[in-house]
Amino acid sequence: MKIKLDENIPSRLASFLRNEGHDADSVADEGLTGYDDSAVAEAANSAGRFLMTQDLDFSDIRRFVPGTHPGILVVRLQAPGRQALHDRIVALLRDESLDEWEGCVVIATEMKVRVRRPDTPPPRGAPMP
User: Fold this and answer.
1) Domains of the chain
2) Are 64 and 58 in contact (CB under 8 A)?
3) Alpha-carbon distance 88 to 85, whole Å?
4) Can you say how many angstroms the Cα of residue 124 is from the centroid of all Cα atoms in its chain?
5) pTM, whole model, 2 decimals?
6) Which of 36, 73, 82, 100 allows an S-S link to 10, with CB 3.0 to 4.6 Å?
7) With the CA atoms of 66, 84, 48 and 57 taken in that order, what torsion angle do they form, in degrees rounded to the nearest 10?
8) Is the pLDDT score of 120 beyond 60?
């Protein structure tokens, strides 16, 4: 799978992902550090890359409608240090199938994974795509 790591995800995770057979790059690799969410989303979308981030803005399914992008993983940890983030994402990749998250918005905490699939109805009051 093609993956893009946001600037708030440990860059060493890219090496792990490549060793697992994924095509991984980062926002920093493209010189997009500090750019707004729209620019990051556009870069990931245009390259067909699944985005991994801590930025809660990407969990807004009214803005990032499932099925309109390659997929987004938002990792939300109580204590999001570099090692904790790395370990949680590695555990997710070992326990879950990234291919099943294509086009989805996924929110992962220490204990839970919530997947919003393209066929999930929007929340009440959300504009239709």
Assistant:
1) 2-116 (3.40.50)
2) yes
3) 5
4) 24
5) 0.90
6) 82
7) 40
8) yes
